Amino acid sequence: MKWKKDPYFDSIDSIHKSIQLKPIISLKNFFISSSSSPHENYSIPISAVSKKGYDFDINIKVARFLRNYPSFFEEFEGPKYNLPWFRLTQKAIELNKEEKIIYAEFEDDILERLKKFILMSGSKKMLPLKVIHSLQWYLGLPEEFSRDPLDFLGDYGCFRIVEMEDGLKGLSVTESSSDGNNGKLLSVLQKNAMRRGFCSGGANESIAFPLFPSKGLRLKQKIKDWLDEFQRLPYVSPYDDFSGLRTDGDLSEKRVVGLLHELLSLFVEHSAERKKLLCLRKYLGLPQKVHKAFERHPHIFYLSLKNKTCTAVLKEAYQDKLTIEPHPLANVRKKYIALMKESDVILKNRRVNNSRPFDSTNVNVKDFDSSDDEGPEMAEASL
């Protein structure tokens, strides 16, 4: 099946700006945790962060990165030696407060998503911490979790740190969740099918995936016939034990598609970089070529090639918003992205002002770029 570009999914900012937003949020959190002067908008010298680009997944100089986002980070002259300092803008501080309130109010919801994620591992009910950390941004877990998971989860007795067979630290769930259906945990697909009267929540029921064809995407007749047969196969819940299931055949593929559907439904933007999901193969019983499942089911998933990466999107979350529950952090992330866009306007205005003829009656404030210990950088440099 040939890949078909869909302008609608390629234009969703909450998906495609998320990659840019992640290091900004990490830097914002670093300012708050490192600054000794919260009354001065969490100001820190550039030397406190200039050598930490790798920690924040920034592949350019940190000073240059900070100057790319003046709506988040404001530069000023420090108290000593005229060195550049940075502080958070008032808008960034206000959004941070809103984010913290959401974490406090919806902590149970966010941790329930984490629990479901771990329970997809089948009878083992555990996942390595390094795997959870790699998908922490998509799950919407706060940075406090990565610093000390045990301390963060201390009040929740159902989580436990364990030693795994690979010598890795893992996080296990000691009790299963229940949706009130004979003590069984149901997937989003099962809940929606039960609500519409298509199934009762029992085992081996045939549940069809909602399909959302992109405009201009046409499947060959033999593929349509195969898809009809695929839809009639029994649905295998991602929370069921998969150890006895054959790894080949259409039934196994239906379990894989169902698991990917449920996984993306738990994420903040209901999407993820496809390569980030490859670490789950061993622990969730996925085939070696699990990435092919996205390509073979273009009516369920969309693959976007923006930002020089491949992002898998769950179509249902954006085509039928009543069926997939939004993540608590989704709205505040959209506000962060809107603030990120303000940086483009600020930098554009600076370029316009700097291109005007020099006026001796209006001398510019000293440019701090030349005093940065990392070398001169242009404030309007792009990524």
Task: Please describe the topology of this protein.
Elements: H1 7-10, H2 13-16, H3 18-34, E1 44-45, H4 62-67, E2 73-77, E3 84-88, H5 90-105, H6 107-119, E4 126-128, H7 129-134, H8 136-139, H9 143-147, H10 149-152, E5 159-163, E6 169-173, H11 188-195, H12 221-232, H13 250-266, E7 271-273, H14 281-284, H15 292-296, E8 301-304, E9 311-314, H16 316-319, H17 330-354
Helix pairs in contact: 5-17
Structural class: mainly alpha
Number of strands: 9
The main sheet comes to: 3 strands, antiparallel
What would the average pLDDT be, to the nearest integer?
87
Q: What pattern of helices and strands is seen along the backbone? A: HHHEHEEHHEHHHHEEHHHEHHEEHH
State the domain count.
3
End-to-end separation in angstroms reads 34 Å
Alpha-carbon Rg, integer = 24 Å
Please tally the helical runs, counting DSSP H or I stretches of 4 or more residues.
Answer: 17
Strand order, sheet with most strands: 1-3-2
Q: Estimate the helix proportion, in percent.
A: 40-55%
- Quaternary structure of the protein: single chain
Strand content: 5-15%
Keywords: Hydrolase
Pfam families: PORR
GO molecular function: hydrolase activity
Region (Disordered): 363-383
